[in-house]
């Protein structure tokens, strides 16, 4: 049995954080980091206050005036495109008394009028005016008042925001993972476009659990989704056409982010897209990126902290190909609001039959889909039990040791430009948890006092 922790309320949280950092390379971690109320409050400040957080896709803000409510941690932001075409993310909090000035989820407007006393802002965040300005205020300089604005940048059409004014720029934060984002979102000349409005649903799980699951956990599929496997739906459809599938499975981990993917030997697989996709490939892709995309069956990954991706062929009767972006919005300790976007290459936006297949693929991972309910039940159970005081008092540890040293000899490092700049291993089938260790290291680097990971 593990040695009991010396419980001291004042420094217990820092101790858990430091212990997590010290133990990552051993593949063990304190289960008490999940659904921990005190850690959650620190996560809001040290992770969601410091990291670049996914806010949406540029296609959702195509016209001046387009806006949507999006979150950085629990903070409500309004992403807007102003009249000159620039994107912004403003905290939804009026500079008079802090009222929420935006009462819709999305729309198009040139101005926002606060419903409390009527202060009005342009969609570039500047104050336009207020009722009875001359009578109410003598010395107010409205030029000095503007909405609180997050840092904002985009990569491959993905819009990110950051609360901290200092830190690495977006490209540096994404690091080598940009190579993979090019393949996933920059494959065609016209880029990707979001179709419809994102789905949203709330569940009782810690945001870290789903971010970890999408970061490369193929291992759970055999058990969690056993019913799907037993109906043989996963074995039917496009996947059964692939000679060597699913033997060719890989894991790519960069400093902060990670993804798993399946490849076929067939260079014209293209994630199941119609053959015409080859006519639209972006010239900026390198030969290796093209080949990787050509042989791709399915990719899934997590950009730390809470953006996940799934892109590829769906098998069986479930349709596809499709690309989905997930965002795990923390909404309180042990509570997550998931936002799920469906994206397709613009070139196929008017192809009805493609859209129908793709939509079925996307829906397979909605709350009513074949897989989501399997996962949600498990994730909620992890959250409830990980919040147990028992874990904290007894210093219980979880395990993410697959792929460390002699734990398995199935893991082979791949040194081949086809697989990009990350540290890549072939998992045989399911045997590496470096994705989970990568995510936990990112968590630790931001959660430590000096937040070195953000500097
Ligand atoms: S709080 Fe917005 S106008 Fe008063
Ligand atoms: Fe799953």
TrEMBL record:
Segments crossing the lipid bilayer: none
InterPro entries named in the record: ARHD_Rieske_2Fe_2S (IPR015881), Rieske_2Fe-2S (IPR017941), Rieske_2Fe-2S_sf (IPR036922), Ring_hydroxy_dOase_asu_C_dom (IPR015879), Rng_hydr_dOase-A (IPR001663)
Pfam families registered for this protein in UniProt: Rieske, Ring_hydroxyl_A
Keyword entries, A-Z: 2Fe-2S, Dioxygenase, Iron, Iron-sulfur, Metal-binding, NAD, Oxidoreductase
Record domain Rieske: where: 53-161
Molecular function GO terms recorded: 2 iron, 2 sulfur cluster binding; dioxygenase activity; iron ion binding
Record bears the keyword Lyase: no
Domain of life: Archaea
Family of this protein: Belongs to the bacterial ring-hydroxylating dioxygenase alpha subunit family.
Protein name from the UniProt record: Ring hydroxylating alpha subunit (Catalytic domain)
Organism: Halobellus clavatus
Source taxonomy: Archaea, Methanobacteriati, Methanobacteriota, Stenosarchaea group, Halobacteria
């Amino acid at each position: 049995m593990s040695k009991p922790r010396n419980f001291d309320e004042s420094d217990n949280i820092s101790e858990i954080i430091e212990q997590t950092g010290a133990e990552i390379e051993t593949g063990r971690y304190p289960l008490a980091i999940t659904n921990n109320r005190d850690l959650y409050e620190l996560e809001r400040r040290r992770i969601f206050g410091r990291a670049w957080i996914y806010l949406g896709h540029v296609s959702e803000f195509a016209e001046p005036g387009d806006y949507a409510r999006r979150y950085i941690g629990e903070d409500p932001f309004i992403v807007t495109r102003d009249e000159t075409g620039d994107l912004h993310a403003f905290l939804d909090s009026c500079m008079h008394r802090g009222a929420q000035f935006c009462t819709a989820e999305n729309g198009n407007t040139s101005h926002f009028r606060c419903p409390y006393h009527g202060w009005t802002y342009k969609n570039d965040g500047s104050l336009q005016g207020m009722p009875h300005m001359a009578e109410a205020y003598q010395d107010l300089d409205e030029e000095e008042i503007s909405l609180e604005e997050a840092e904002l940048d985009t990569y491959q059409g993905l819009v990110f925001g950051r609360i901290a004014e200092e830190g690495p720029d977006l490209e540096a934060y994404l690091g080598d993972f940009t190579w993979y984002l090019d393949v996933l979102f920059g494959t065609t000349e016209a880029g990707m476009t979001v179709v419809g409005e994102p789905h949203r649903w709330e569940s009782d799980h810690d945001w870290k659990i789903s971010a970890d699951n999408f970061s490369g956990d193929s291992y759970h599929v055999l058990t969690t989704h056993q019913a799907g496997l037993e109906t043989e739906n996963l074995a039917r459809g496009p996947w059964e056409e692939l000679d060597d599938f699913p033997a060719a499975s890989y894991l790519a981990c960069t400093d902060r982010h990670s993804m798993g993917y399946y490849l076929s030997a067939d260079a014209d697989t293209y994630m199941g897209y119609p053959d015409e996709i080859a006519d639209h490939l972006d010239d900026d892709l390198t030969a290796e990126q093209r080949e990787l995309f050509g042989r791709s069956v399915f990719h899934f990954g997590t950009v730390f902290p809470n953006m996940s991706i799934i892109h590829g062929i769906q098998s069986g009767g479930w349709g596809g190909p499709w690309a989905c972006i997930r965002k795990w919005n923390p909404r309180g300790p042990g509570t997550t609001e998931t936002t799920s976007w469906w994206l397709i290459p613009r070139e196929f936006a008017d192809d009805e039959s493609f859209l129908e297949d793709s939509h079925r693929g996307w829906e397979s991972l909605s709350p009513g889909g074949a897989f989501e309910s399997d996962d949600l039940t498990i994730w909620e159970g992890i959250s409830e039990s990980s919040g147990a005081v028992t874990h904290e008092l007894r210093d219980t540890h979880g395990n993410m040791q697959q792929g460390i040293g002699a734990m398995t000899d199935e893991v082979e490092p791949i040194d081949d430009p086809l697989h990009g700049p990350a540290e890549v291993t072939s998992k045989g089938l399911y045997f590496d948890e470096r994705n989970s260790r990568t995510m936990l290291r990112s968590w630790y680097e931001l959660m430590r006092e000096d937040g070195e990971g953000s500097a």
